[in-house]
Amino acid sequence: xxxxxxxxxxxFSRKYNEDSASELRAILExxxxxxxxxxxxxxxxMDVSEIRFSLKKAIGRLExxxxxxxxxxxxLFLPTGPLQEVSISNGxxxxxxxxxxxxxxxxxxxx
Length: 111
What we know:
71% of the residues lie in helices and 0% in strands. By secondary structure, it is mainly α. It has one domain (18-110). Residues 5-15 have low confidence and may be disordered.
């Protein structure tokens, strides 16, 4: 059985996956681009500025080779989640579905 110290050291020694992080950053940047062109949706629980803040924060962490909170990001990409509702209201629903599929694939690599 691992000691507490071994568990903590194991958390910090996990290898940073540069390729997956780069893929994730590209997906988030594309979402950021679409949200630049979007207005708030009455159906979304977050307004566009909140979504953009979350995306920018995650992109910044990835650029600095830090881990991102995948749960928080996954919330944005949920079916009928904030990004999908904004995408439907602003005419980029098909593009969102493609981005969400890519996001899901990358997240599986990062777990």
